[in-house]
Each structure stands twice: as C-alpha cells, then as structure tokens.
Task: inverse folding
C-alpha cells in the first residue's frame, strides 16, 4: 500500500501536465466557389498549468502516503496484538498441561495408596472406586490440556503464516511480563495509527481544496502558428489561449473537500477522546489484574503443590486422614494453582491490551 501510494508522486510531479498540441490545416482558398489557391497552416501550443496544480497534487500524494503508513501501522498493531495474545495463551496452555500432568501423577499415587490400604483392610471398595474415578478424570484433564496446547500452536501457525506441519517450541513463562511505562504510553497514544489516518484524511481534504483552487484558475496556453497561402504569402503568429472558468470553476471538488475536511476533523477529535478513554480503561484493568495475580504471592506454584500433596498422601497412607479429606485437599490445591495460572494469563493479556490501546506494541 505504501509503495503504491508513493508511486503516485511520478504522476503528480509531471509538469506541464498536458502534452504539446500540434495542429495542421490544409484546404483550398475559395472565391465565389472558385478555387484560387491552397492554404496551409501549422500550429504548436503548450498548456502551462499556471494555477499551482502540481504542488497541490504533490501535497495530495503526501497525504495518501501518510494514510498508507497509518493504515499499515494499524494493521501491524492488530497483528502483533493477536500474536501476543496467542503466544501467552500457548504459554498458559503449557503451564496448565504441566499442572494436569502433575494432577495425574498425584491421582495415580492416591490410587496406589488406596490399593495398599485395601490390601491391608484399612479401606473400602467404595474408596477404591472413588480413587479410580479421580484417576480417570485426571487422565481426561491431561488429554484435554494437550489438545488445548495443540490448538494454541495451530492458532500461532495461522497468524505467523507457518505450514500446518511446522514444529516449534514456545519458550518463556507467564511470570515474565511486558514492560509497560504508563506515563510514556499515555503521551504517545496520540500517535496511534487510527489517529494518524484521520489526520491524513484532513490533509487530503486540504490538498483537494488547494487542487480545486488551482483548477478554478484560468488555464493558459502559449504557442506559435505558421500559415502559407498561394505558395507566396507567409504568416507567422504567436498564440495565447485562455479558458474562462465561468460555468465550471471546480466548485464541486471544493465543496466535497470542505465537507470531507469537516467530517475528518470531527472524527479525529472524537477518536482522540476514544483513544484516551481506551488507554485509561486498559490501564485500570491491568492494575486490577496485577492485584488479582499478586494475591497468589504466598503460593509457590507447582513445587509447593507437590510438597503439600506429598505430605497429605503420606498421612493418608499412614491412616492419619481419610480419602475424602485427601481428595478435598487435592482439589483445593489444584484449583488454587490453576487459578494462579489463569490470573497470570489475564494480567499478561491486559498488558498487551494497554500497549495496543497506546499503539506501542513492540
């Protein structure tokens, strides 16, 4: 789009815009319908485009180039936002898969401990069936988490233009966020692509107004003319041609330019207010997401989960606690860890939205 717009400079910079006009005339000289000789004339003239049309057209091309750059920036920011969200969803899916695998391992350990207690006569068949059901659910959750990972990778392949068979590994962690300088973002938000596009629309309308003024000016052509009559009479004339813009003086283009400029200015003012509101809202949301994520600061993640469940399983094996207590603690710990991972995804997504609202995605 940008190269296409810049190519317009070639056409806009042509001066004069009109090619020279060559006129040839040849015919008999008649007196009382009686041919008395031959008249020949040749003329050459050139329109000089003296109304300033070249500068107005170049100004218009500059506005179109700015508009193309703004549209390209907007499209790039949207793509980066989609890729950023998909990347974090991929990391989230991987962490949820790791949690599901750990939950499956724990469910297997609980099932093994229950079987040992059955052999020792310390557990009932109902407890064994409950343990088997919990293990089956854990296996299903792990399989579902694997599907989510594949889905997130497929989304990234589509966004990045990779083949369906392309293999890649997502590296990173949800714990590592983006650097967001709220002060500089709020100041730089006025350079967002949508605002630049509307500003280019205003400049384009002003260029059209200038072009209308140039077209309203009289167009002048200078030239020379040579005439030969009866093979002996030679005439050389200088010529001047001028249009009189009485009926059509580009009033239609001028009216359209005025209306377009008024519309673009109103939209630009409204869009500026909208961008300010979007940045402010995204900032507040990100702050709340950070608070929600920080609420899990005391949790140590999977390592703490493993330690707590290992202690609870040991107590169950020793007969210090029942199966229902073990499953309740297991569910609570797993749900807490899952919620911590979910809150991290929400925080990372909110950070992307802040950068996108300010048009500053890296």
Result:
């Amino acid at each position: 789009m940008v190269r296409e717009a810049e190519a317009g400079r070639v056409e806009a910079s042509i001066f004069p815009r009109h090619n020279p006009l060559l006129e040839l005339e040849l015919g008999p000289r008649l007196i009382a319908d009686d041919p008395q000789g031959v008249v020949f004339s040749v003329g050459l003239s050139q329109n000089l485009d003296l109304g300033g049309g070249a500068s107005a057209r170049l100004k218009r091309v500059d506005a179109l180039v700015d508009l193309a750059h703004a549209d390209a920036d907007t499209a790039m920011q949207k793509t980066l936002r989609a890729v950023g969200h998909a990347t974090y969803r991929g990391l989230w899916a991987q962490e949820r898969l790791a949690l599901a695998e750990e939950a499956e391992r724990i469910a297997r350990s609980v099932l093994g401990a229950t079987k040992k207690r059955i052999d020792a006569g310390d557990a009932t068949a109902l407890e064994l069936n409950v343990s088997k059901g919990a293990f089956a659910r854990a296996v299903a959750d792990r399989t579902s988490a694997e599907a989510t990972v594949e889905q997130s990778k497929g989304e990234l392949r589509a966004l990045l233009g990779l083949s369906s068979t392309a293999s890649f590994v997502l590296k990173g962690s949800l714990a590592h966020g983006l650097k967001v300088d709220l002060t500089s973002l709020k100041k730089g938000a006025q350079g967002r692509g949508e605002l630049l596009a509307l500003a280019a629309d205003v400049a384009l309308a002003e260029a059209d107004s200038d072009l209308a003024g140039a077209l309203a000016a009289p167009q002048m052509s200078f030239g020379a003319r040579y005439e030969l009559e009866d093979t002996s009479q030679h005439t050389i004339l200088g010529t001047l041609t001028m249009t009189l813009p009485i009926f059509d003086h580009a009033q239609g283009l001028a009216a359209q330019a005025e209306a377009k400029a008024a519309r673009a200015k109103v939209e630009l003012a409204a869009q500026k207010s909208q961008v300010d509101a979007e940045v402010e809202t995204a900032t507040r949301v990100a702050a709340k997401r950070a608070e929600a994520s920080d609420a899990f600061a005391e949790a140590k993640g999977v390592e703490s989960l493993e330690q707590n469940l290992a202690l609870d399983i040991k107590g169950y094996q020793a007969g210090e606690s029942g199966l229902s207590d073990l499953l309740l603690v297991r569910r609570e710990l797993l749900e807490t860890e899952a919620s911590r991972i979910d809150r991290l995804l929400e925080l990372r997504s909110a950070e992307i939205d802040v950068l996108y609202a300010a048009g500053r995605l890296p």
